[in-house]
Amino acid sequence: MKVVTVVGARPQFIKAAPVGRALRRAGHREILVHTGQHYDDDMADVFFRELDIPAPSVNLEIGSGAHGAQTGQMLMRLEEVLLSERPEWVLIYGDTNSTLAGALAAAKLQIPLAHVEAGMRSYNRRMPEEINRVVSDHLSDLLFSPTRTGVANLQKEGITKGVHLVGDVMYDALRLFLPVASKQSTILKTLGLEPASYALMTVHRAGTVDSEERLSQLFERLADAPLPIVFPAHPRTRKRIEALGLLHKMPAQILIIPPVGYFDMLVLESKASLVLTDSGGVQREAFFLAVPSVILRGETEWPELISCGASVLAGEDFAALRIIKSPETKSVSPADLFGRGDASDRIVGALKECQ
């Protein structure tokens, strides 16, 4: 079985790592296509090295750009690859422009399409990611949902055929790589941090990063934070902060650092006392690591984290950050919500069965 896997952003590299291993273990051929949506060492290359992902078979090197232009270039180039390779499946992940381009290219060429992380919904159409995931789901032949909520969301939209509840491949990846990260990462020593002495923050979504008002609100809410906040800044986030002249408004207790690799991020998450994030992946990783989190948004695609008490929503104006308080987590294990860590094998099995 030949599978073309389309990735382009760091969360997709993480998700694709355990699935790629499962494909190779089962004797299948994977053609890994990197769109180049994330393209520098900190955002891409380090993940391929750490996660032992084979070098991409094709790197489209699209780079950054406006949504329409970026997606259009990806679509044009992916169509060429798919016409050449003619795989049994095209495999896409998550909700980025790379996801949407892969979905459109496969659908237009009538090549079977499988979507990993199907059924996630924020019900906020202002988010580009929401558009990407909805369109991708409605074009897919196989839909691999990580949660029961995802399956229910698809049913509400009339999608029942080809839906599989498999669990979360990010949990697979964390179980696979956390022991290695714990041995190899020196990030705490480098930053002079002690476990549980800091909070960790990530911010990258356009709804916050592109708004001077929202970024200013965020920094204002964190001005009285009772502990240091380590902030690995996405390059685009850093550029926006600088362009908006907000570096001087950043509270002194926020330590802004360059992006970190997967191993360093896992260690920073696992040793933090609290995680502040607008990232869907970081929300779940914090839960897997039993670290409470505050979601820097007004909604989330992962409502299970709210209902079990692992996370709280900061709200559109970050009002919940006036007093940073750790949520009180109920006794819920990752397996209760996100599967047993065998999502990758389930995905490969379903691809083979439906070939």
Please, could you describe this protein's structure?
By secondary structure, the chain is an alpha/beta fold. It has 2 domains: 180 residues, Glycogen Phosphorylase B (Rossmann fold, 3-Layer(aba) Sandwich), CATH 3.40.50.2000; 162 residues, Glycogen Phosphorylase B (Rossmann fold, 3-Layer(aba) Sandwich), CATH 3.40.50. The protein has 16 helices and 13 strands. The strands form 2 sheets. A 7-stranded parallel sheet has the order 3-2-1-4-5-6-7, sandwiched between helices. A 6-stranded parallel sheet has the order 10-9-8-11-12-13. The radius of gyration is 19 Å and the shape is globular. The mean pLDDT is 90.
Summary?
The protein has 355 residues and is an alpha/beta fold.
Question: What keywords describe this structure?
Answer:
355 residues, Rossmann fold, 2 domains, 46% helix, globular
Main sheet? 7 strands, parallel
The CATH superfamily of the largest domain is known as Glycogen Phosphorylase B
Extended strand count: 13
> Oligomer, anyone?
single chain
Number of domains: 2
The average pLDDT score comes to 90
Strand percentage lies at 5-15%
Poorly predicted sequence stretches spanning 5 or more consecutive residues: none
